[in-house]
Amino acid sequence: MRTLLVLLAALLALPAGAQTLDTIRKNGVIRLGYVDGAEPFSWSDANGEPQGYSVDLCRVAADGIAEQLKRKDLKVRWVKLTLQNRIDAVRKRQVDIECGTATWTLGRQRLVDFSLITFVDGGSVLTKVEADLRRLDDFGGKRIAVIGGTTTERALRDALKRGLIAAEVVLIKGRAEGLELLRQGQVEGVASDRTALIGVVVSRAGGDAFKLLEEDFSIEQYALMLPRGDADFRLAVNRSLARLYRNGEIRRVYDRWLGPLGPPSVLLSATYFIQSLAE
């Protein structure tokens, strides 16, 4: 009896999501989550179809999983998420992969797992072009909007504290909201990842002129969020990404969505090269 109880306890201790590939094979569906409004990484077009750099990487991962499972008929089900619920959606296995701008941190890895790094960005502040604001130090007595509960909020507060900068942090729910507050003069800056700020300006600037600070206050390593405790599924996703980096097709994806911003940085190019793992 005691042996049976020990075995039962061991089975209960196994990760609940360790059979993601089996579930996908059985159901014939892979569920991909994305955050709308996070251009150029993830958003919905006029037809409601997910688009963007991270979305394309998830499509590559889904194709690789379909090939591994020998399921040419594998269906992709897109699930719209928010910045506030995306981690819970992965943790509770409401989606199999989150395809957005999640920064890989050790704190988050207690809740979810991560793929290979997909992008390297930096935290910056968007302000009006006519404002005499070039560095974070210039924001003493000013107001900076930032999405609450993000790694950027924490990094911004840390940077302000280190620099003894007495700026007011205004919490918002999305970058578009921050851009509107900046346009109306209710804040002097909007903090977020540099590339995402460029994306929101390109899509929503409406003729207004904005600029970014000359320096970043943090580094953000993006990765696809995955269910924790499922090594086989993580390997399947990473195999697709590594092949993309190895054969150079990642540059095609980059150019499609980020090409107008210039070529990949030296750091991002090195990230692709280092992660082009052999089979």
Can you describe what's shown?
By secondary structure, this protein is of the alpha/beta class. The chain folds into 2 domains: 18-120 and 220-274, 3-Layer(aba) Sandwich (D-Maltodextrin-Binding Protein, domain 2), CATH 3.40.190.10; 122-219, D-Maltodextrin-Binding Protein, domain 2 (3-Layer(aba) Sandwich), CATH 3.40.190.10. The protein is 39% helix and 23% strand. It is built from 10 helices and 11 strands. It has helices at 2-12, 20-27, 53-69, 86-91, 151-162, 175-184, 194-204, 231-246, 249-258, 266-274, and strands at residues 29-35, 43-44, 50-51, 75-81, 97-98, 113-128, 143-147, 168-172, 189-193, 210-212, 218-226. The strands form 3 sheets. Strands 6, 7, 8, 9, 10 and 11 form a 6-stranded mixed sheet that branches. The radius of gyration is 20 Å and the shape is elongated. The chain starts with a helix and ends in a 5-residue tail after the last helix.
